[in-house]
């Protein structure tokens, strides 16, 4: 949605201009400022601070919090930065959705602005000594995905060796080849 992209872009601009406090969020009076900024980007949209921007920000923040909590507080979830979607095995999804019904739509639905909203909202959500930047969180998820893939490859390799496949070198065979 073009309006969402413009709104989030304006929010990032406000944050970069210093109209955002990392501990408490945007400073008072930010809604009229967002309205002006959106008018410049989308002059014929008729988007007003109240009710349009205020309502959309609540919805975006609620959706972001669902995805953020799912990925950060539950093992087994990842992020596909190409498709902009949460990823998980079926059993992980089913177990999570059983107690978090609001997360169900995100199994099939992309959340295009997750990274940008994380830059804006993460400090509101994650507090204390363990709070992380979204870049660190996404990097950590990528590392977990790579580690899981490597472990799976090791298991597959071990299974081939144990099956007695003569064409698959064992670790001893590899070291003798050097």
UniProtKB/TrEMBL annotation:
Q: Which domain of life is it from?
A: Eukaryota
Region span, Disordered: 156-178
Q: Which Pfam families match?
A: Myb_DNA-bind_3
- Residue ranges constituting the Myb/SANT-like domain according to the UniProt record: 3-96
Specify the protein name. Uncharacterized protein At2g29880-like
Q: Which organism is it from?
A: Punica granatum (Pomegranate)
């Amino acid at each position: 949605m073009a309006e969402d992209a413009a709104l989030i872009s304006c929010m990032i601009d406000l944050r970069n201009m210093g109209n955002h406090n990392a501990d408490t969020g945007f400073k008072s009076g930010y809604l009229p400022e967002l309205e002006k900024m959106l008018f410049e980007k989308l002059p014929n949209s008729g988007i007003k601070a109240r009710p349009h921007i205020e309502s959309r920000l609540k919805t975006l923040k609620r959706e972001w919090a669902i995805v953020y909590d799912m990925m950060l507080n539950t093992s087994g979830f990842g992020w596909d930065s190409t498709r902009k979607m949460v990823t998980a095995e079926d059993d992980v999804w089913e177990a999570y959705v059983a107690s978090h019904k609001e997360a169900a739509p995100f199994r099939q639905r992309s959340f295009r602005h997750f990274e940008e909203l994380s830059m804006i909202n993460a400090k509101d959500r994650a507090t204390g000594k363990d709070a992380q930047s979204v870049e660190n969180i996404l990097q950590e998820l990528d590392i977990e995905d790579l580690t899981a893939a490597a472990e799976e490859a090791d298991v597959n390799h071990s299974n081939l060796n144990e099956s007695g496949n003569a064409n698959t070198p064992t670790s001893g065979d590899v070291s003798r080849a050097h």
